[in-house]
Design a protein that fits this description.
two-stranded antiparallel sheet; 77% helix
């Protein structure tokens, strides 16, 4: 009885070496010489979910800050509506007295006092209407965004784009650095709202 030697296999006593398996291992090592870890599809999806979660948290934080800014606007509008211009001027004079005594060219105190001197009953009514109306609109939009109402996203983009245009228009007259900072913040919020709106439309395509 004759026996054929096993194909591609060498019997070395206790050791039975499969050279095809060894060749596969060498090929795998050659393709990844440093032994670097390759992320699996599940790991990549997990990292993307973490990134999306961080963007979502940044979105919620920016919206909450816009809501707080809206409440400040409403409070300021109520002050203009309830307090006469002469009383506001008196408060500003008392508030800036120490600063202007130490430095008569103090930028903030000087501009604040000039703005107070320009107040009249008519301008008080305008500022009260402007601040209260804009604050209420922002509060409604912020509530819709936090509750993830789809209609709130495009309305917020339209409203904030209009505010940015108005702020830039006002900057052409006042050259206020505060308006630039507020505009930059609004641009960041618009980007986050747009990103969140895209995600919500993918999650709720039928809404």
């Amino acid at each position: 009885m004759t026996t054929r030697p096993p194909k591609n296999r060498h019997d070395l006593g206790l050791f039975d070496i499969d050279w095809r398996a060894v060749g596969c291992e060498n090929t795998a090592v050659a393709s990844n010489p440093a032994g670097a870890h390759r992320p699996s599809p599940n790991e990549s999806d997990h990292e993307m979910q973490i990134d999306e979660h961080r963007v979502h948290q940044a979105f919620r934080l920016s919206v909450i800050l816009k809501g707080l800014h809206a409440l400040i606007e409403i409070a300021g509008g109520l002050v203009f509506y309830l307090v006469p211009a002469s009383t506001v001027l008196l408060w500003v004079e008392r508030l800036t007295l120490n600063e202007l005594t130490e430095d008569p060219r103090d930028v903030v105190a000087t501009h604040l006092l000039q703005a107070a001197h320009q107040l009249t009953d008519a301008t008080d009514s305008f500022y009260a209407f402007y601040l209260i109306s804009h604050g209420l609109i922002k509060v409604v939009l912020v509530a819709g965004l936090l509750r993830e109402k789809l209609i709130a996203y495009p309305l917020s983009l339209i409203a904030m784009s209009g505010l940015i245009a108005y702020q830039l228009y006002r900057y052409s007259y006042t050259h206020s650095a505060g308006l630039i900072l507020l505009t930059l913040f609004d641009i960041v919020v618009i980007v986050l709202v747009w990103h969140e709106w895209r995600l919500q439309r993918k999650r709720h395509p039928a809404d």
